[in-house]
Amino acid sequence: MNTDSKYTKFALVREMMQTPDILRSFKLDNSEKVIDTIKQKGKLFFTGEGSSRIFPAKNAIYNARRAGINLNLAAEGGLQACCYDLSDFVVFGASNSGKTKEVIRLFERLKNINHKNLFALTANKNTKLESLAQQTFFLSCEKEQAVAATKSVAEQALFYQSLLSAIQGISLDKKLTQLADAFGAALTMPIDKKIINAIASAENIYWAGKNDGVAEELTLKTYEIARKKSDYLEGTYAVHGVEEVMNANDVVILIDPFKSELEKIKQTLVDGVGLTVFTICDEETIFPTIQITDIGELSNYVYLAAGWNILVETGVSLGINLDKTQRARKVGNEYIGG
Description:
Rossmann fold, 2 domains, 5-stranded parallel sheet, alpha/beta, 15% strand, 13 helices, 10 strands
């Protein structure tokens, strides 16, 4: 993907291309209150639907656990969260529109029982969600035109990760230039046409990777951008039974794979099923590899960018109008009420 008009005629691509500068200029402002509250409570719950939860929340939890942050962290969709006792948790709800029905239902329920620690992250002001939150943080990326959320996903994730880093007394500010550069490089690097052709002709596209939100988010984006059937295979799930229903017309894309399991994956999926496997990794592997730059605790954003690149190339090769979905909506389940 590059700045050729065959790409940039789509709002989706233009918004993807804006993301490096959004990451470069990111600032965590006015967060003292929520940081103090999280420290005091020791429990933080993330909620949201689809792209507002998958990568932002799971990336934050993954990196916090790797860093040994002593917090009870969890994430769930809004309606399932209504089944939980969240009285001792600080609750953060993300919704770009501020109108996501499931998040609002949860916040209304918690507000009705006098929950004091409700915080929101959104791209729009004067929304129902803002009226229910103790404090609302606003994304700088502003409203997206494309149905598939992109630049907002990256900014939401950086907000959460920066928030948890600040709780440790660590600032990510000095790493943002490196992040933006690596993100931009992954977003625009050439992808071998043989890889794109294989993905474009696949019956099913499986994304396999850690439970850090990257592969799962790219599964959702496969539906919205490439309009292909897709599934997320967590960890080593790809060799624990799903091979029974795979076929030679399928493709598996491994993101930052466990190196010790690559040979087993080859035996099970390539030799056993006959399908095609690719990797996105910071080093070459035994499979055709799309190589990205390792930037430490911010590398997940670079993996995400490489995945976006693949999906746009796939969609363009299939002649898809990336901005015009047939059924998917910008606000999947919009709250309509007083």
